[in-house]
Amino acid sequence: MGQGGDEVIVARFVAAQRTEHAVPHAVTCRALGLSQSWFYKWRDRRPTARQTRRDALDEAIRAAFDASGGTYGSPRVTQDLTG
User: Fold this and answer.
1) Alpha-carbon distance 12 to 53, whole Å?
2) Is the pTM of this model over 0.85?
3) What is the pLDDT of residues 30-82, one digit of tens each?
4) d(Cα 66, Cα 70) in Å, to the nearest integer?
């Protein structure tokens, strides 16, 4: 596996195969040469500090956009969040 974000991409791909195409995790892991235990370890891990911060930012952006009635673009939402 590569560095950093590669693992996230691969794990999300494995998970998406089940939800979007009904392909079991075991089949996708076998096809990619991954162990199922790696996938389940990744899936069941606690969120990282970075992920927690990003989730909070996503919520703040959504709240600012919704509060504008869906009319603010990214410059105005950024201004609201930083100023």
Assistant:
1) 19
2) no
3) 999 999 999 999 888 888 898 899 999 999 999 999 999 999 999 999 999 99
4) 5
What does the alpha-carbon distance between residue 6 and residue 21 come to, in Å, rounded to a whole number? Answer: 22
Rg (CA), the chain: 18
Question: Which letter does DSSP use for residue 3 in this model?
Answer: S
Q: Is the Cβ–Cβ distance between 63 and 50 less than 8 Å?
A: no
Amino acid at residue number 75 = P
Rounded distance between C-alpha atoms, residue 70 and residue 20, angstroms: 29
Token pair of 47, please?
């969120």
